[in-house]
Design brief:
Length: 330
């Protein structure tokens, strides 16, 4: 009888210990959930400054202090970026370690850009005047990486001018509205630069950055040798010792983007000088972007369907304004 009681006593003790651990785990989980809920609520309009704010005084102070700390950290990080001296090999691009990749991907992108949209299973998702935007829905390891292709025709400037402004770091902040900071990591050649770009955060998404080489070139038009060169800018993600992904506080995007532009000239009457009224630029924009992170696929697709047409329209308007009173750059 005493042995049986001892067995039952030990069993009751074990059950009591298990119950205690479960209760402690429940209390801890509840506390974390409440803290998480508070953080989410504090992002809402009821917790902004104002006479009807739901935040207590100490919560408001903590939020301001946290925001200031983050600003100091980000300012220190950007200061370190500004101190980076852009590398320059001083060697021709043709013997740089990235040259074979630059050649291969640039020519691939030029080939894809010149294929008609009837080749490759493209689906039209937006149109505005002369602009048509196509997509193919694809996912890699759960990430949305839909290839996009836009075709557009704009009058008044050349393909060289369009690509010049897309490539040039001196003017990028004038048209790239999502850009928070740009750093040149390396100048491989006059036509090839390695960039680090930090993009603005859009809550609740995590802020993102990208490291990529950018290359510009003119290519003879094989179908019409008498025409001006076809111009292309190709951007492709790479790794760089000055900005390793392991040290980044952002989610790093992986990109392959190309802008291919062909100039069509309407011959002036009576041999008159060519003016901007005689110029038409045929634009093809191709993009494959893996944003990384865990943003919902439906949200990403809704965003790019809205933002990509806006971007291309605004950028062509920007180039038109920049070139309208300048000599033509063929």
């Amino acid at each position: 009888m005493s042995q049986r009681e001892e067995v039952w006593r030990k069993r009751v003790e074990r059950e009591a210990e298990k119950r205690k651990k479960v209760e402690e785990y429940y209390k801890q989980s509840l506390k974390e959930a409440q803290e998480s809920s508070t953080k989410l609520v504090m992002m809402g309009p009821d917790c902004e400054e104002g006479p009807h704010s739901a935040m207590k005084e100490d919560e408001f102070y903590d939020a301001v202090e946290l925001g200031l700390d983050r600003m100091e950290q980000e300012e220190a990080f950007r200061a370190r970026l500004k101190e980076l001296e852009p590398l320059s090999s001083g060697l021709p691009r043709q013997i740089h370690p990235l040259n074979s990749e630059i050649e291969r991907i640039t020519l691939e992108q030029l080939h894809y850009a010149r294929l008609s949209v009837g080749e490759g299973g493209w689906e039209l998702f937006a149109e505005d005047g002369e602009m048509r935007m196509y997509k193919r829905e694809e996912e890699v390891n759960g990430f949305v990486v839909d290839p996009l292709k836009a075709v557009h025709t704009v009058k008044g400037f050349t393909g060289h001018e369009m690509c010049h402004y897309f490539f040039s770091p001196e003017v990028r902040n004038e048209w790239e509205m999502t850009l928070e900071q740009m750093t040149i990591l390396e100048t491989i050649a006059e036509d090839t630069i390695v960039f680090l770009q930090i993009h603005k955060r859009i809550w609740p998404a995590t802020q993102r950055d990208a490291v990529f080489w950018s290359h510009i070139r003119g290519v003879p038009d094989s179908k019409n040798p008498e025409s001006p060169d076809i111009w292309i800018v190709c951007n492709n993600s790479t790794e760089h010792s000055s900005a390793p992904n392991s040290n980044s506080k952002y989610i790093r995007m992986n990109i392959t983007v190309s802008l291919t532009c062909q100039t069509i000239i309407k011959p002036p009457k009576n041999g008159a000088e060519i003016t901007r009224n005689d110029l038409t630029c045929k634009i093809t924009y191709c993009s494959v972007v893996n944003p990384g992170g865990w943003a919902p696929a439906s949200v990403l697709r809704s965003v790019y369907k809205r933002e990509y047409p806006k971007f291309l329209k605004k950028f062509t308007q920007y180039v038109h304004e920049k070139t309208k009173n300048k000599p033509i750059l063929f």
